[in-house]
Amino acid sequence: MSTPKRLLIVHHTQSGNTGRLAAAVHEGAQRVAETETRLLRAFDAGTADLLACDGLLLGTPENFGYMSGALKDFFDRTYYPCEGKLVGLPYAVFVSAGNDGTGAVREIGRIANGYGWKTVAEALIVRREITPADLERARELGEAMAAGLAMGVF
Q1: What CATH number did the domain enclosing 125 receive?
Q2: Torsion over CA: 152, 23, 117, 51 (sign)
Q3: Which residue of 89, 96, 109, 123 could cross-link 117, Cys pair, CB 3.0 to 4.6 Å?
Q4: For the chain, give me the number of helices (H) and strands (E)?
Q5: pTM for this structure?
Q6: Distance between CA 51 and CA 47 in Å, rounded?
């Protein structure tokens, strides 16, 4: 029997909105029994967690057109220890945005490019109030990522 694929969800939440999205992403990922999923706050996730995963979902609020400082801190702490070790790692992003959200997605993409990761899903950007439909889209993102890992699509 093969080892299950591991999906890591790293997020930061200030107001609770991104946390709600992260919980929904996690719930969706857990629908796929063949994938092990871990949900960690950005300040709690580190190099060992990142090196142990087969896929990554990153969640952040948009702050002044940028990602949260906590997610940036995660990148700062893991970049050099992981440099060159995660080339091709599949990842996707979810953002809770008061405005546009694309700035946070763009900047995460720039950093992910430095790691050598590959984006495997369109960013989920939820603007302003989170609706039940947004939470379902978050569940679908988590489930799709976990299923893709389990089936070896990524």
Answers
A1: 3.40.50.360
A2: negative
A3: 89
A4: 5, 6
A5: 0.96
A6: 6
